[in-house]
Amino acid sequence: MANYFAYPVAFDYPFLNTSGGSDPYFNYYVINYILTYHKQLIYTKIINYPVGTYNYRPPFYMWSVVFASYIFSPFVGLSKAAYFAFSESDAFYAALLIIPVYLITKEIFGKKAGLIAAFLYTIMPSNLTAGILTDDRAHTPELIFAFLAIYFLRWL
């Protein structure tokens, strides 16, 4: 529901409107680099200007947005598809994060507690604001992998 109200503000193509500080702008820069050169950005002067440094960000998030861009490019073109996929990605991953929250809580406290935890996570303000189309951070997919790792560690 939050995405519905954010569309007019977030989708002011070709201007990237983000509310997450400098991270979304750099993430979008890396995504455009991947789309242009078909490889991961390793070293850049944008970080630690003018000396430059290595791109320390995990590549999964950027490459997943690039993959979604290629899927939707026949409908709106690659540039717009990358823009829209980037703007929707955080909401998509935040919705997927509900699954490991439910699984972990169900394993520890039971099914009813798992449903309550999933519901509370769904309406949690930080999740709602991260899901709005203008935040575009790479940390939500990292949380999915961390939570699933915690869930699957029970078999070790």
What are the defining features of this structure?
single chain; 156 residues; mainly alpha; globular
Instruction: Give the terminus-to-terminus CA distance.
Output: 39 Å
Fraction in helix: 55-70%
Which structural class should the secondary elements be placed in? mainly alpha
Largest sheet: 2 strands, antiparallel
Provide the succession of SSEs.
HHEEHHHHHH
Q: Please give the domain count.
A: 1
Unreliable spans are none
Average pLDDT value? 84
- Beta-strand residue percentage: under 5%
Q: So how many helices?
A: 8
Computed Rg? 17 Å
Query: What is the number of beta strands?
Result: 2
Spatial order of the strands forming the largest sheet:
1-2
Shape: globular
Task: Explain this structure.
The chain is an all-alpha fold and 156 residues long. The chain has one domain (2-155). Helix content is 69%, strand content 3%. The protein has 8 helices and 2 strands, in the order ααββαααααα. The chain has helices at 2-10, 22-37, 60-76, 78-96, 98-109, 111-123, 125-131, 139-152, and strands at 43-44, 53-54. It has a two-stranded antiparallel sheet. A hairpin with an 8-residue loop joins β1 (43-44) and β2. α3 packs across α4 (78-96) and α5 packs parallel to α8. The radius of gyration is 17 Å and the shape is globular. It starts with a helix and ends with a helix. 22% of the residues are buried. The model has no long low-confidence stretch (mean pLDDT 84).
SSE layout:
Layout: H1 2-10, H2 22-37, E1 43-44, E2 53-54, H3 60-76, H4 78-96, H5 98-109, H6 111-123, H7 125-131, H8 139-152
Helix pairs in contact: 2-3, 3-4, 4-7, 5-6, 5-8
